Every structure is written in C-alpha cells, then in structure tokens.
Amino acid sequence: MLNRVILIGRLTADPELRYTNSGTPVASFSLAVDRMRPNASGERETDFINIVVWQKQAELCAQYLHKGRLAAVDGRLQIRTYENRDGQRVRVAEVVAETVRFLDRADTGQAQTAATAPAAPVTNRNRPEPARAPRYEDDPFADDSQLIDISDDDLPF
C-alpha cells in the first residue's frame, strides 16, 4: 500500500498552533495549490488543501510560515470523521505532513536556520536559481562537474 502526497503551494492564512492535552504541538494551515492544466474556459483552477503538522515542525511552521509564503509539503492523506454539535457526521480530508520545506525567503529580516532554509536559493524574487544537489561526505558523485583524466587504456571496453 502507498499513501504519499507531495504539494507545493502558498499559505492562505497564518498557521494556527495549538497544543494537545499532553502538550504536543500541532499546527494547521491551508495551502493554495494550482492545478497543472487549465479548465475548459482556459483558466487555471486552485485547490485549497488542509495541512496538519505535529511536534517541533509544527512550532517551526507557526514561527516562520505566514500567509502567502511558498511551501512544499510531503506527507500522507488522512480522511477522518467526527460528529459536529448538530449531531451530523462530518468527513474531513487533510494532509498530515511529515516534512515541510519553506521555499521562499521571509519578508522580515529574520535569520533562517537550517530547518527553514529555502530548498532553492533565491537571488531575484521573480527568478530563483535552479536547486543544487546537497553534498554528502560519502557521495561518490559529489565532484561530478570536474573533468577526469582517463586514457583509452583505462576503459574496460
């Protein structure tokens, strides 16, 4: 079985941070995600998707994400039901985030930590640079942009 959701969109409002009775932080917000293809009239439609984030990441989202910020969410789809005050059963679809990436810089001059750094560095607000692959200590392809001096005798074919 597989239940995986990856979304990129803009927050429709500031995240709402709450705490469970046991003190676990939980934040919720909504992402506006544009559809890939235009509808029959040529307009692009937008879906508004509810996101739930738990624990330390919930506090980071509440601290650094605000309405209009661009974010990527990786998580799972959850459908839950509850009974409202009128006694009616209500079904709610939401994405429970495992990771949230902040994709643009904050408008305020706050310093960004490693957990809140953008995935793609932005030099111009309208034109981000392409994302570069992270460098790892044991990555054999970390220096793949350098020329390698190989003679024909070194090749096995």
UniProtKB/TrEMBL annotation:
Keywords: DNA damage, DNA recombination, DNA repair, DNA replication, DNA-binding. It comes from the Bacteria. One of its GO terms (cellular component) is nucleoid. One of its GO terms (biological process) is DNA recombination. Residues 110-125 have a biased composition (Low complexity). InterPro entries: NA-bd_OB-fold, Primosome_PriB/ssb, ssDNA-bd. Signal peptide: none annotated. Residues 126-138 have a biased composition (Basic and acidic residues). Transmembrane segments: none annotated. A motif (Important for interaction with partner proteins) lies at residues 152-157. GO terms for molecular function: single-stranded DNA binding. It holds the Pfam family SSB. Residues 107-157 are annotated as: Disordered. The keyword DNA repair applies. The keyword Hydrolase does not apply. Homotetramer. Plays an important role in DNA replication, recombination and repair. Binds to ssDNA and to an array of partner proteins to recruit them to their sites of action during DNA metabolism. This is Single-stranded DNA-binding protein. It comes from Alicyclobacillus cellulosilyticus.
